[in-house]
Every structure is written in structure tokens, then in C-alpha cells.
Fold this sequence. Notes:
Layout: H1 3-42, H2 63-72, E1 74-75, H3 93-108, E2 127-128, E3 134-138, H4 143-148, H5 155-166, E4 175-178, H6 192-209, E5 213-217, H7 219-227, H8 232-235, E6 240-242, E7 251-256, H9 259-264, H10 268-285
Parallel strand pairs: 1-6, 3-4, 3-5, 5-7
Antiparallel strand pairs: 2-4, 6-7
Helix pairs in contact: 1-5, 3-6
Amino acid sequence: MTAATTFYWLMRAREADVILHAMTERRRKRILRQHVQTDRLLGVDAVPLGEPVAPVPTAAGSASRSSTVASAVRSNAAPLLATVAEPLPRLDREGKLRVLEAMRLEEVQNCRKCELCRGRLNTVFGEGDVDASILFIGEGPGQNEDEQGRPFVGRAGELLDKMIAAMGLKREQVYIANIVKCRPPNNRAPTPIEVETCWPYLYRQIATIRPKVIVTLGGPAAKAVVGTSEGITRLRGTWHSYVLGPGEEPIPVMPTFHPAYVLRNYTPEVRGKVWSDLQQVMKLVGL
Ligand code: URA
Ligand code: SF4
């Protein structure tokens, strides 16, 4: 090797070193910024780093996805609620908007299929980006949501907005829906029969939007989507999945605490757990 080529390679090595250093520095700064932001937004005093992060599936279906997910994800092997047998169409943005708007106006708005229709002021269909990677699913409308006809607009909604912001997203970039579209009286949990009666709407929302990941908020939403009787304390923080139908790729599901629960139990531990769950979601969708 001549002195010139040696010099050339030395310089390249130095360049690579500088680039590598800059990259890790950027990454370090990004993580730090994220932590500081969350401290501010979610009021997390200590960001948990200890919780194991499950191997996460890649967005597109692949062999490695099935194997990594299979070990870490518990699927809805015993779904509480039915899926359809025929293949589901994949729609473009226009198609999704059309389908969802028709369902909202022609079906949900006038729905009287269960008792919850009696006490409502408005149905709360759900809202957000129809092409969103993340679908948040709550329990059901509260008083504010019932009055405004929009999901998560009260105090719990404020916290959900902060959670979304801490993930580096805007509310308009995700989709937010509930397992029942009408307010249960006195904010009680919806009954199993109400959940089952309303389920086809949520099912069609999931099938239309086809999110990369579903985040369920609170016990009832987790139970409805994952199809288990396990409590939220045991469900949260680990990957589950939801399968739309035969031949469909499982959609990863991350159950976490309901923001209303977080507000009632505003401890560093509870907030840290929610943040840890959201971090797993961020990792999966590449945020
Ligand atoms: N709680 C929910 O579960 N859903 C809402 O839309 C609002 C509060
Ligand atoms: Fe219909 Fe669902 Fe409202 Fe019951 S909760 S009336 S099923 S929209």
C-alpha cells in the first residue's frame, strides 16, 4: 500500500468514525429529548428502562415477524367477538373515508340496537386519520364526549392528547375510537351484551383502517379486543394480537391503562408503566 492509499483509508476510517459518533450523539440527544418531553408532558418523574421490550414485528408480514411475534405475543385465540369469514377488501384513503362516513351517518348515528341508545345525546363514532398507524381504543363516551359527539375530549382526553404528543405525534395523526359508541349511564362500564352488540362497528373500523398497531385503553377495551378475562394489570405491557379473519396478518395489540385510571392514580409508577407501554408501540411503528 502506498502512502497515499494508506492516508486515503485512514481518512475514510476517520470519516466513518465521525459519522458514527454523530449518529450515536443524535440518537442519544433524541432519547434524552424524548425523556425530558415526557417528564413535562406526562409528568413522569422516572422513566422506566427496566421493563423488557418484546421483540417487535416489522410492519410488513414476513417469516421473521411470525416467529418473533409468536414467542412474544399472545393472540386472541379465544376471541370474544366474531370475525368475518370472507376476505376483507383493502381500501385506499378515499375508499376508507367513504366507508367510515357512510357507517357513521347511515348506521351508527341512528343506531338503537342496544339499551345505551336511550340515554345518549350523541353517538361518538370515533375520529382521526383513516390511514393512521396507531388505533387507540377506549371504553365508551363519557359526559363530555356524549355532549360533543367526539371521543376523548374531557379530562381523560387531555391526558390522552399528552400521551400522543409524548410519542411525537399529533392527535390528528392517530385514530381514536371506543368499544361502544353511546354513553353508558353514570359512566358505568358497558355490559358484555352492549359490547357485543356494538362490536361490529368497531370491527369494521379496524378492518377499514387496518392500523399497524392497536393500543387499548383500560380493562374493558383490552378484554373486548384481546378476548380474555385477564385483568388489565396483567395484560398491559405485553404484546397481544388481533386477527381480523382467516388469512389475515395479526395486528399487534398493546393494552395499557385507561387515562382516567392514570388520573385517579397519578403516581410515578403508573405513569411510568403507561410510558413504557407507549415506548414499545413507538418502537414497533418506528417512531
Ligand atoms: N373515556 C373513554 O373510554 N372514551 C372516551 O371517548 C372518553 C373517555
Ligand atoms: Fe348502537 Fe352501539 Fe349505541 Fe348500542 S352503543 S345503540 S349498539 S351504537
